[in-house]
Amino acid sequence: MAYNICACPNSYVSLAHKIAKLRNNFKLFSSAPPPPPPSLFSSNPRSFSRKTSILTHAGAQSDVVTSQFEVPSPNSSTKHTESPFSGLEAVMTGYILGKKKSTEVAHAVWKNVVRKGDLVIDATCGNGYDTLAMLKLIADDARRGRVYAMDLQKDALESTSSLLDRSVSTHERELVELYAMCHTKMEELVPKGDTVRLVAFNLGYLPGGDKKIKTESETTLLALEAAKRIVAPGGLISVLAYIGHSGGREEFEKVQSFAAELPIDSWVCCKLQMLNRPSAPVLVLLSRK
Fold it and tell me: Could you read off the pLDDT of 101-144 as tens digits, one per residue?
């Protein structure tokens, strides 16, 4: 049956009224969408209930990761915290730009490993510059630290002793012990129960000395094995290998193979090498976890 709602004006009003009433009744069964949750970045602090604020604070406490390298705001009076690798960035940049030597890089790395009062070993003291650098790192007023420096050549020990006498105080000088011995026997010097923070090798021959007298691959490997046994967790074996002289490249390759075979769960090993300077020394760093 068809209806013509335009036939009578009263029927039109009645039908319109019913449609409006039906719409109102339908709204009673439809739920309004929930209000959006308060923004964590709201500028109005009253937009949070007290309960919400407490839960948010507790959650934040459990998720916060503290960092030493916080960037202060421009209006903050907080002092910038010094990087744990202080000075290393500048030296590395200088090395990359050809303005710093690999020995300087090594010394900068040592500075971030060795602490005052530590026991360290210079396995090839040479003219004493590494020994002096080590002494400056371990010396303190308590006079607890020690540097054990060794070399087979009398000239090297005399040169090291002379450099120390000219460069440091009597109290500091007493922290260095010089030994005329092969570095393969370094374990004999370490007191029972003590561990070593740093063992440094500067391979090759004595600068200014007899070039025929130099470190050899076989004894260097034995010394590295000894160093591996006495270096403490968090310690370092530093090897500067010179490859420009006879036997130098072979010795470096032995050192590199030794480092490559160390277990990755307890050692981190790397090298620093110039690519277009084939005779430049190579710095090999073995860090014990």
Answer: 999 999 999 999 999 999 999 999 999 999 999 999 999 989 99
pLDDT (0 to 100) of residue 87 = 82
Residue 219 pLDDT greater than 70, yes or no: yes
Instruction: Output the six-digit token pair for 288.
Output: 């014990």
Q: In what order do the strands lie in the sheet with 176-179?
A: 176-179, 146-150, 119-122, 196-202, 231-241, 282-288, 267-272
b/e sequence 140-175, b meaning 16+ C-beta within 10 Å: eeeeebbbbbbbbbeebbebbbebbeeebeeebeeb
Whether pLDDT at 273 is above 70:
yes
What is the reported pTM?
Answer: 0.72
195: tokens are 């561990």
Can you list the alpha helix ranges (DSSP code H) found in the chain?
A: 9-29, 50-63, 88-96, 102-111, 129-138, 154-167, 170-173, 217-230, 248-260
The pLDDT of residue 192: 92
Q: How far apart are CA 219 and CA 223, in angstroms?
A: 6
